[in-house]
Amino acid sequence: MKKYFMFLNYLFYSNRDLGLLIFRLGIGCMFMWHGFPKVFGGEHKWIEIGQAMGTLGIHFAPAFWGLLSGCTELIGGFLFILGLFYRPTCFLLIGNMSMAFVSQMLEGKGLLKAAQSVEDGFSFIGALFVGPGKYSLDYYLGLVALDDTDTTILKRHNRVRSLY
Question: 107 vs 34, 67, 73, 113, 142, CA distance in Å?
Answer without folding.
Answer: 21, 20, 21, 11, 44
